[in-house]
Structures are given as C-alpha cells and as structure tokens.
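Hi everyone,

Forwarding the result from last night's run.
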Amino acid sequence: MKMASMQISIYYLLSLFHIFTILIIPTHSQTISRIPLGSSLLASPKDDSSWKSPSGDFAIGFRYLDDQNLYLLAIWFDKIPDKTIVWHANGDNLAQERSKLELTTHGELKLTDPDGGTIWEAQSTNVSYGSMLDSGNFILADNISSSRYLWQSFDHPADTILPTQELQINEVLSSRDTRNSFSLGRYQLRLMLEGDLVLTVVSNPPGVSYEPYYRSKIADDNNTMNSGYRVVFNETGSLYVVRRNGALFNLTSQNVESWNDFYFRATLDFDGLFTLYSHPKSPRDGVNWDEAWRSVWYEPQNICSASTGDYGRGPCGFNSICSLDSNGRPSCVCLPGFKLLDSSNSYGGCKQEIVQSCDANNLGKLRENYEMRSLNNAFWPSSQNYERFPLSSEDECNRSCLGDCNCIVAVIKDGICWKKKLPLSNGRNERDTYGKALIKIPKNNNTFWDNGLEKVNNDEKDQSKLVLVLSILFGSSLVLNFVLIAASSIAIFVSYQKNKKLNTSSSLLETNLRVFTFEELKEATNGFREELGRGAFGTVYKGVITNSFSGSRSIVAIKKLEILAEEGDKEFKTEASVIAKTHHKNLVRLVGFCEEGPNRLLVYEFMSNGTLASFVFGISKPDWNKRLQIAIGIGRGIAYLHEECTTQIIHCDIKPQNILLDESFTARISDFGLAKLLMSDQTQTNTMIRGTKGYVAPEWFRSKPVTAKVDVYSYGVLLLEIVCCRKNVKVESEKEEEIILTDWAYDCYKGRKLERLIENDDEARTDMKRVERVVMVAMWCIQEDPSLRPSMKKVVQMLEGVIEISLPPCPSPFISM
C-alpha cells in the first residue's frame, strides 16, 4: 500500500511539474492594476468606460448589442479592431440602459438593473479589490496574498478559454446560440470523469447531453493513470490534456506562430466546432486587420458526418442538409418543399411550406398533387425508418413513397428503399457514399436545386406526351399525320440526345459540381486574359464567376486542359468525378467543369497567397513554424489521397508550384487526380515518365511498377526545400557539393553539420531538434528503394512526433559515403 501511495504521489508531482513547464508566466509575474471597492461602470451610450488590464490587451465592461438595444457584461480583446469577446456573464439576461456593474464597498461584484434588481453577481467574500489581468482573467482578491484569488472569470468560462487557462474535470464550455446571440447554445465541451475530452449536443431545454460527436480518446480502460484530468492552454497556442501520470496528450499540432506576435483563443463556436484561433498583435502586410482571426486547428474535421445518434437535430437542424464549406464549416440548406424556421438563422432547421395531409379524402389524390425529386448522396442516418424493402427498380421506391401520406423522404442505398417520417435529423451530403434520396413535394412547388436535384417522374411525363401525340395522329388527316410523325420523330430524337447527354454526366452531377459553358468561362476570364501559371496539364487563368442563387461573385482559378489521354472524353468525366469526391482541408476544391466540344476546363477555388514556390523561394526566409505547419499540411493532404479516398489517387507531380496557399497560408494541393488525363494507366504500371525534374522518383526511369511511393519521394525533396528555402537543384552554387540538395542534405546530416542547411535562419537554428527530425524524415522519403520509403500516413506521424524515427540509411548508393 505504501508503495502504491508513493507511486501516486510521484505521478502527481510529475503532473505539477508538467503544468509548471506549460504555463510559462507564473501568477507573481503579472502586473496588477487594482480596482478599489466602490468602483462602478454604467451601461450607457454616453459612457464607454471599462476596466482595462495593465498592458491594455483586455478590458471588462459593457458591450452594446445594437440589434437588441441591450447590454452585455463582457471581457474582450481591447487592442484589436473587432474587440473580440472572450467571456460574458449575462447572455440569457441582457441588461438595459443605465444598468450598473459595481464592486461594492462590501466586496461584492454585482450587475444590477436600473431599479437596483440583481441581474448577475460573483459569489465571493472578504474581497479587498478587483483586477483585470493581462491574461484576460478578471479576479477578485484580498490583501493577504496577490496570488490568492477569491473569484476569477477563468473559473467560470463561457464559450472561450485563453492561454494560461485550464479546464478541470466536468468543467464546461458552452457555445452561443447563434453567431450574433450570446444566449446559451446547444453545444458543450467537457472533460469527462473517465478522462476523455468530448463535444456534445445538449437537449432543448438544456439538461441532457446526447452522444458525443467528438471524443479525444485519451482514456485507457486498462490503466486509469493514463486518463486525463486537466485541460491546459499554454501561451504558445497549444492545447494539452494532462494525464494523471503526468504525461501530456497534445490536442493540437505544432505551434504555428510566435506567442510574442500573436494573440490566441480557443472557442466553442456556435456551429459546434471547437476552434483554436490566432490573431497578429499588430497590423501586417496581406492581413485584413479588421478580420484577422484565423483558424489554426479545429475539431471535429467533418461535423456533418460526426453528428450521429438517435437524438438531436444535427448541425443544421431538422429537415435540412449539411455539407462542408471550403473552411471546414457546416453549410446548411433546406430540403425542397421546406423553408427556414427562422429566416435569419440558417442553422435552425426547416419546416414544410405546404403540410402534407393524411386525411382519408386526400389519400387518393397524393399521386396527382405530389411529385418526387431526387438528391444524390443525401442521407439522414439517425432519422426514423418506418419501412424498408429490397428494390427491383428505383421507380418501385418512388411510387411507394408517393402514395404514402406518412412518407416524406425515401432513401435508396445498397439496393434497399428506406421510408422516413418527419422530422429528419442529422441530414448530410456524403460524396463518398453512393445512394439517392427521393423527396416528396407538392407539384406547384417550384423549389429547385441545381446541385443534383432532378424530377424523378420525367420518364412518365415523356410517355404521357407520346400518348397525346399518337392520339392526335389517329384523329387527323393522313397528310397531317405524316407531318406530325416527322415533327414528333425529330422532337423525340432531340429529347433522346439531350437525355443521353444528361445521363453521361450523371456521375459528375452526383458530386454537386456546377456545369459551365465555354462562353461563361471565356467571359469569366475576360477572354482568358490573366494567366496565373502553366504546367504539364495546361494553363491556369484567373476568373470571376457569379453564384446563380445568391448573386455573389467569387474569384476562381480556371485550368484549361491542353493534353488529354486517348479516349480523353471518357477519362475527363471519370477523373473529374473522382476529383470532385475528394474533400480535405489541404486540397484545392473543384468548383465545376466545362466539357464542350474540344474544350475541357476545370474550375477551382482561388488561392490568394499563390504557390509555395513563391513563398519559400523568395528573398527573405518565411517563418520557421509556419513552414513546418505547411509541410505537415501537405503531408496530410497526400496521405488522404493515398489512403482515405474511395479511389486511391497518385499525384505524380508533387512540387512547390503545385502547392497553393489560401488566405490563412494553409497548404492546399492542386493538380491531384489529373495524371490520368495525360496517361491512361498510372497505377502500378510501366509507363511514360511524368513529374518534374528533380522531384521524379528513380523507378520512373527503370522497368519498375509505379506506386504511391513516387509521391513519397517527391514529398521528401519538397520537405528539404521547405527546410532550406532553396530549390532542389542550384546550378549557380559556387560550391559543387551544394548543387544537388538531396545529396548535400544527406552529407550535412551524416557529418552532423545540419546548421549549414539553415544558415541565416535564426528561428530554425534555435530549433535544431525539429530540424533534425524533419531532415531524417526527408531522408527516409527519398530512399532509392521504394519499399524502404514509409507511407505518407507514417511520414505525417513522424513529423508530428507521434512515432519515433529510426536512423535513415544512405538514400542512394551514388551519394558519397
């Protein structure tokens, strides 16, 4: 027993040591600016005073909510333009004008209305003063010790935690209700008693938490000492869970920016994502200072698919469809025949525009008054299925739902028809899951989605038209009959050709791509005037397109393909469909396509910060931490293409020019999936050499199968370029040994002279441990023998420090030993 007790004591001492090392600034180092008893603030448009921290970074006071004409007691970042709120007290009970926040002479912190009634108060006794600290923590303390807090806002978080703040077991972050409302929302983050950090949806009214839609998987059922018991947010922008044995579970990836230059916050957003944000402390080039918060990390990665269970309405509310936008956020739209419950809240769910009646007198008229429309890849996995049966044809499911007054949606999946009642919860669009939803709407409803929605009963209408034509023929003169026969034949032929064309494009329509005409893209690019770049697949132009629904305009990159494989038409459709079904934060998203005559064009989202080549090979060396984060992002994107797509995609041309950077400098891989447009079979075959000189794997030049390991090789070269901020071949180098980067890098690694690779890079030179780690990973990637190269998933794990790296052998026998 004594030994067990001693072990537990050691575990706790280790835990305290880790916490001490994580929290860089101890409490005694913070400057205190005391707010004396009797001080007060007034909620008034004529008085915008607040209690500020010594540095001026934070302030506490009243924030006027002009859409409600009421006041919120809050703490906010005071030096940045948008004054971002990080804590609030009375979101569900907003204050009127002339309400007062007072630190009374008795040491009570109270928010009262104009009549003196208490709206909110901090429970504490023996208070001597208050203070707004530079950490963003508002405290009430006594005179006994400056580090003894009788009450602090950090112990009562709202939706945000700040660096140096901790969350204990069962302590909760609660989201806001909507983007602009500070009322209690329906999402919670909590460190569970068993030690896992979870995100859950809370019932309405609040009280019951449903099944988690995100779980950190820290807890170990076989060893309670491995379970988490405290969440710590350190000043460098990293979130940890401290285990009971003192070990740390890192929730976020490596640090992205220097904490000296950036503010950080971790917020449970109103849309259910727990997000780590950073914001520069001073204006800088290329950053919109008014909207400079950017997402560094978030969970879950796909909230649409993560939300499951039998209860709750899902991220978008009942009777809606959830899909991810380009930033990984849920985007919501109502089903056809439905409209928003609240026109100002697209996340609040939808209701029927015309309620279907089950009155006995109306049952016989269902097929007359309703029609079915289909939506590809739409599912409600947790909604109630009240009937299911195997199908012989899609029309069977269509007719069954159409004549059933309880059926609103029928889902066809895996040869089964599933009939569903209202309400429909957790709706999502899953591009990688094949199936179809049939949605019943009134015939006079004109709602139409151009991202895959189509009428189901077109064939029936065509048959009705044919019967009508034949009836006219038999009732008319012989001459007129011949004329009508000829006209009808032409009409039927044209209709057939049109339907044939639509059917051949169905796989693309299933992916919700927009189909452009060549003239539309010619107009969007002003005659293909502004060229963004050229590559093996064609030329890229900058363009501006208009959203057909909202009327909004967005900048796009339009790739005009110039070389296609044999049977290029078929290959174009197939590969465009594969590209469209990929979705990852480190891939450039395909917006649409054009397939018209000889013209083959692909429309991508526009990346505002250009290519990695221009970023890394510029005059000055970019931030070291940012370069590392970009490298890891590229690795994750390639790993997704290799291992997580329905169809494996080998890029075949990984290089800095094919890595683009979005507005937040997140790496986005482009040109993936296009290799098959230039060659008919790229996977495990002996074929023509593709790729770019310097990045091409050795097996391209030999009679060896080409596998995903060619991308691993190219990534290794790219990794060295990111570390050294130089190209892989430097012809103008004065030193012969430095011309080929891969050879030189191995010589430096073997000779323990890695500092030569990062000369004039002060940030990297102070982080030699990670420099060595990245170079070792690169050495494994560029092994001449493909079987020695790790998978991209393992490469990412090595870079992130999840797994150890063994000493790499010499990559090539031709490198000097």
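The chain has six domains: 1-30+157-300, 31-142, 320-456, 461-504, 509-605, 612-637+658-799.

Cheers,
N.
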